[in-house]
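Schema walk-through. Below, the input block comes first and the output block second. Nothing else is stored per chain. Lengths vary across the set, and this one has 160 residues.
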Amino acid sequence: MADACNLLDEDCSGVVNDDNLDVYEPNDDEEQIHDLGEVDHPLFGGDALEVSGLTLHNADDVDWFRFYADDEIFDNVEITIQILVPPNGTYVVELYRVDGDYDDPSDYTLEDSVAGNGFMEMSYRGALFEDDEDDWAIRVAATSWHEQACTLNYRLDIFN
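--- output ---
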């Protein structure tokens, strides 16, 4: 039997709603963080990064993403993240600067976060004349999850 979008494991796989996994699953913790690549300012040959078709397949699902934003002394990092999550439930999105190893949570510094539903936005402007704000991580999770949310996609747009 296939999993329906509910809180049951109908196919007995050990994963609830696994038929609703997105292409980035399983990325439920820092050890399975999905690398989105580089985001750079358009003046330096970069482009915005658009990631769509994302889902949280159950109430305990947490999606982690990482990206590289080239921070040069002459090209200060200015990150804006726009998030479009389902209108039902409540979601939290956190932006972390990573100073060191992605596998070491002690190297993560929370720089901004938003909570709610629908359209949300957060940003970070780096320190002038510094060039060490290159590595970033984003965490997306539900704080209250509607059982049908696993069939609804969310989207991240990252600008630098």
